[in-house]
Amino acid sequence: MVEFSSSLNLFLATAATLVAIGVYGFIVGPEPLRRIVALNIISAGIFMLMVVLAYRSAGPDAVSTLADPVLHALVLTGLVVAVSATAFALALLARLGKTTADRPEEPGP
Amino acid sequence: MSLLLFDVLLCGLLLALALASVLSRQLSHAVILYIAFGLLMALTWARLAAPDLALAEAAIGAGLTGALCFTALARQGKLAASPTLSWQQRCWPALFVLVTLFGLLLLVLQLPAKPGPLPALVMQQLAASGVSHPVTAVLLNFRSWDTLLELLVLLLALLGTLQVAPAPVYQSSWVLSRSWSQLLAPLIIVLAGYLLWAGAHQPGGAFQAGALLAAGAVVLKLNHQLNWLAWRNIWVRFFAIAGLTVFVAAVLTAWLLSGALAEPVWLRWPPELAKYIILLIEIFATLAIAITLTLLVVAEQPATPLSLARQEDDEAADG
User: Fold this and answer.
1) What pLDDT shows up at residue A108?
2) Residue B205 C-alpha from the chain's centroid
3) pLDDT tens digit string along B117-150?
4) Rounded to an integer, what is the distance from CA B220 to the centroid of its chain?
């Protein structure tokens, strides 16, 4: 019982710290690619928070032995949406890189 | 006690990898560390009693995101070391983030340890959903609106990516990796079919099967196989859109069928048909997710008169 709740708190704290690390990388990270990676770390932290909350219901004092399926379904949807958003962001980034490489020092009109 | 030790190690490794990825000097190191982080996330989902997520994350987080980031790295051209930041540029954000983290920890650790009412409700209604795996029941019956909109988001991301992505960077493939990928291909198809079918009563389903198929297809595409798998192929377009259209058609059919009986409700399956509707939607959703994710990772612009790459070529030819 004690072990269960201390594990739970450990994972909750890790999720919060992952979000913080991601935010730091998003603010500081000099390259856009690193900012996209940092955004993915933020989303990993948020998903982890949701999965830990789902895991509560699998605990020793809970009604069922299964974790909360609603939160799992939400995170599953979130994973796929996150990877598609990342792909779109990276495509925009590639376009940006190509556009700036084509016209290096051209002054604006 | 040993489980707690494992948890401490896992969390420590996750934090160390995330921090190293954010702080590393070179961009390529950041990407490689992030891929390792994704693999550990899959392990974490398995630890937290979420096998569905572990399956999806292993294919998406470690496989597809890694391929995406490496493609982005290859497009950046020669890799220079990141510009070094002054301590002021590092300290003020760090202070801000530490204050945020403190508040976040205070909030998160206050969350009640008791679960909400939803899991019990799902278990209660599970028999009427047509499947016996609760996560699949939530995804495709109780909250199918989410899945419908998710397929729409995937399609929009694909259309956007096809508009802006520049021409792919072609690299020669390695003989050994080509023959290995050909060996893996039939295995991946069998596994994806199994995952799709198993999703009705145990962890698995359309998302995991689609992500796995996409990961296999990406490996083959990177080895210059599967040349038909491109947006110019009319069947690929058809199946990329079919996930959404079959879903909407099923919703409308169910609406009409239930309308004759009682009050029609949007997105509610008739219980006796739910199993077949869910299976039909899952098959098309798997194909749509697989095709969309593959094309997102190995995005290449279709050579239509409207595409940006074509316009640039024309401009170059004119000038």
Assistant:
1) 44
2) 13
3) 888 888 888 888 878 888 888 888 888 888 899 9
4) 18
Q: How far is the C-alpha of B56 from the C-alpha of B4, rounded, in Å?
A: 25
Q: Name the B residues in 28-47 with CB < 8 Å from any A CB.
A: 30-31, 34, 37-38, 41, 44-45
Please report whether residue A38 resides in a domain.
Answer: yes
Domain count, chain A: 1
* A45: pLDDT strictly greater than 90: yes
Q: List all residues 6 or more positions away from A58 whose beta carbon is below 8 Å from its beta carbon.
A: A64, A65, A66, A67, B49
**What tokens does B283 get?**
């098959």
> Quick check: is A109 in a domain?
no
The amino acid sitting at B268 is: R
Q: What's the confidence (pLDDT) of residue A59?
A: 60
CB contact under 8 A, B64 and A83: yes
Q: What percentage of chain B carries pLDDT values higher than 90?
A: 20
Exposure of B241 in the CB half-sphere (CA atoms within 13 A): 7
Contacts A11 to B, Cβ<8 Å: 7, 11, 44, 48
Residues of chain B short of pLDDT 50, as ranges, are 319
In chain B, where are the structural domains located?
131-319
pLDDT at B36: 92
Q: Classify residue A55 by burial, with Cβ atoms within 10 Å: 0-12, 13-18, 19+.
A: buried
How does pLDDT run across B141-189, given as a tens digit for each residue? 888 888 899 999 999 999 998 888 777 666 677 888 888 888 888 999 9
- Find, among B162, B144, B157, the residue nearest to B246 by Cα: B144
- SS3 label, residue B42: helix
Distance separating alpha carbons of residues B257 and B304, to the nearest angstrom: 42
Cβ contacts of B3 on chain A, cutoff 8 Å: 3, 7
Q: For residue B223, what are its two tokens?
A: 């080895």
Q: Is A40 part of any domain?
A: yes
Residue A108 lies in a domain: no
Report chain A's mean pLDDT, rounded to a whole number: 82
The domain spanning residue A38 has which CATH number? 1.10.287
Q: From residue A15, how far is each of A10, B101, B142, B260, B286 by CA, in Å?
A: 9, 10, 28, 49, 30
* Helical packing angle, A69-102 and B206-222, nearest 10°: 30
